[in-house]
Amino acid sequence: MPPVSPMLAKLAREMPVGDDLVYEPKWDGFRCVVFRDGEEVELGSRNERPLTRYFPELMDPLRSCLPEKVVLDGEVVIAGPSGLDFVALLQRIHPAESRVASLAATTPASFVAFDILALGDRDLRTVPFGDRRALLEECLSDARPPVHLTPATKDPVKASEWFSRFEGAGLDGVIAKSTGLAYREDERVMVKVKHERTADCVVAGFRWHKSGGVVGSLLLGLYDDAGNLHHVGVAASFTTARRRELLDEIAPYRLQSIDGHPWEGWAEPEGSNRQGRRPGAPSRWNATKDLSFEPLVPKLVAEVAYDHLQGDRFRHATTFRRWRSDREPQSCRYSQLEVVVPEVLEAVFGA
User: Fold this and answer.
1) Which residues, including other chains, have CB under 8 Å from residue 39's CB and lie 6 or more apart?
2) Pairing of β 69-80 and β 30-37
3) Distance between CA 209 and CA 256 in Å, rounded?
4) Which of 37, 63, 170, 250 has the most crowded CB, counting CB atoms within 10 A?
């Protein structure tokens, strides 16, 4: 019965190799545990929150494709013209029921299964993953879109090929699991290998840490060809000592007023300046979360590591590498970012 906390993965930069490893593409969507008991279907998020109301278009396909009583772990994704579209997924969270219905028709979601936790009355969480995978393949042998079984291979060469090739379809990297692995809820016992690149970005603002008195995150910007500074993401992973140091390092650039700042129109919810990304936009996951920011003179440049872009911004939080005093802020443009050749999603499912 719900809720279930999904099994998690720890980050690696090198592809692990071993006779007992199974490799899968790492999907970029909403982690989702599907519970089916007859006509009843429930979708649970990674944080054990219900997702069912946001994806009504998946209910009937799941009923038609899945066994009568089953619990599956997987990912809800939306396929767009250029691959997986995480922004379209975000549009599903918190809107009115009529808006959900409209989006379900115009940008329908899919479910990609990669593990099975229960079948009938049998709890499979202590069963080795190799056996669970065999059961999953049997259960989904007749599955058809929008329900999919994730590809899997034991060949590390093939996994490396997927790692490079499928990034153009919006996938995050590769997951490696041991065939003997039990399903261990909320533990980082799988391995995820993700892409990493670097970019030089303008630091045009910061947010306070929740503990108070130190930097929580640096707000990053890139210029487009028209000279507009877009908010493209944050760098937020720092030690406590580094957060204190950063406050001293950015102190000469702090502004008492946001007047004249490139993002001044975003300081208020109804600001008139709508060009680019809004660093103060409300969180779809937590409407009470404070996303206000302190402006900085946009003269600081930081080198950050990132995994990949989603549209015109970094998909995840970046990692701060160093200050780039040798770079002019106006030179920090989108053109420096590597463009990945698009890959058709059908090729991923066909693998």
Assistant:
1) 63
2) antiparallel
3) 19
4) 170
Q: What is the arithmetic mean of pLDDT over 252-275?
A: 72
Annotated catalytic residue within 26, 158, 177, 192: 26
Average pLDDT over residues 11-26: 94
pLDDT at 286 over 90: no
Contact, 140 vs 147, CB < 8 A?
yes
- CATH number for the segment(s) 197-336: 2.40.50.140
Query: 111-120 burial string, b = 16+ CB within 10 Å, else e?
Result: bbbbbbbbbe
Catalytic residue status for 299: no
CATH number of 8-195: 3.30.470.30
> CB-based contacts of 82: which residues, under 8 Å, 6+ apart?
170, 342
What is the per-residue pLDDT for 278? 52
Virtual torsion, Cα 51, 192, 118, 62, nearest 10 deg: 40
- Domain residue spans of the chain: 8-195, 197-336
Cβ atoms 184, 7 nearer than 8 A? yes
Q: What is the pTM of this model?
A: 0.74
What's the rounded Cα separation, in Å, for the pair 318 and 233? 7
Nearest 5°: the CA angle 82, 309, 346 is 30
